[in-house]
Amino acid sequence: MEFLYFPDDKSEYIPGIISIIIIFILSILIVWLLMKASRKQVDSLNDQGYPMVYDRGETRKKSDQQAPTQKPNTPEEPIEPNGTPTKKP
Q1: Rounded to an integer, what distance in angstroms lies between the CA atom of residue 52 and that of residue 40?
Q2: Fewer Cβ close by (within 10 Å): the C or N end of the chain?
Q3: Cβ atoms of residues 78 and 58 within 8 Å
Q4: Rounded to an integer, what distance in angstroms lies between the CA atom of residue 8 and that of residue 55?
Q5: Residue 79 and residue 55 in contact, taking contact as beta carbons nearer than 8 Å
Q6: CA–CA separation, 75 vs 40, rounded Å?
Q7: How far is 84 from 11, CA to CA, in rounded Å?
Q8: What does the pLDDT look like over 6-62, one tens digit per residue?
């Protein structure tokens, strides 16, 4: 198998390992920065009067972010943002 190259000197693996570690750390940093910027945009939209409506018709408030509560998984009908119940499909 001459097409595979496994060096006898294992020190040749060090530059590849270092570059993988650097890329991994940079990717985690980029994801963290994107999440932080996204939260800032959501907060600025909420301050401007545009509440974020999520897939179940919920709006998130600052009080919801500070004390998250687990809602039981019940088969209740979802509620539209204006408060009227909707029918499930």
Answers
A1: 13
A2: C
A3: no
A4: 56
A5: no
A6: 33
A7: 67
A8: 888 999 999 999 999 999 999 999 999 999 999 999 889 888 888 777 666 566 665
